[in-house]
Amino acid sequence: AAVIAKIEKPEAIERIEEIVRESDAVMIARGDLGVEMRVEEVPHIQKKIIDLCARMNRPVIVATQMLESMIKNPMPTRAEVSDVANAIEDGTDAVMLSGETSIGKYPLRAFTTMSNVAKRAEETMGDHVALDRRLHFCKHEEFGNVIAASIAQLVQRMDLKLVIGFTASGRTVRLLSKRRLPVRIAGASNNLRVLCRMGLYRGVEPVQIEIFDQSEEMFRRGQELAMERDLVRQGDMIVFAVGIPLGTGATNTLR
Hints:
Keywords: ATP-binding, Glycolysis, Kinase, Magnesium, Metal-binding, Nucleotide-binding, Pyruvate, Transferase. Pfam families: PK, PK_C. Residues 3-110 form the Pyruvate kinase barrel domain. The structure is a single chain. Helices cover 48% and strands 16% of the residues. It contains twelve helices and nine strands. It has helices at residues 10-14, 16-22, 30-36, 42-55, 78-90, 99-102, 107-124, 127-136, 143-157, 171-178, 192-198, 215-228, and strands at residues 4-7, 25-29, 60-63, 94-96, 160-166, 184-189, 204-208, 237-242, 253-254. The two termini are 32 Å apart.
């Protein structure tokens, strides 16, 4: 089972590196943090944890009071909109609604507002800056990171439209997600648990795919699925990441 560590106590901040290392993902519970410690410390802690998760290749969620006023009102405050956008520009993988959709009067409008703000923030944040920053944190002695960094370099130098990662565990796709590539990433797997987990990875679209005995069949089916889902158009360039022989459990090939 995967573990998402909810950070809500000062004691957790004191040992945050150990917690992030042992977790599959991290949630920054800002409401609880603001109660447990001085409120002016929370923005700094949020940025620190997001940065740490980037270096340690862990998905991170920013939660609590993001669009709090929409529990009662149909429109958010300008400060709330800025809060959501800033979290995304800082590098969070996900932003989370809570009371806005559980007890609020306008749950669908709150969701739509959050989605629109997130999309606009990603359009304007400057992907190349984020990419350079993530590459700086890459530990090249780890083979999965080498593959992810190689794909990031290809994206910078070629007109790629899509990266398809065939994965049994989701690890390589997670590493690609943390690189903040300025192209779409499709995480292809036949494992339902892995597909659900990849839904948390920023910039990744999980794609269910059957298992093939031959790599050529898998590449062909990957192209077909990309076209069916409108991820690419005829003539677009795609890069595949896969472990060969198939089923090895480790990505070792780019095509």
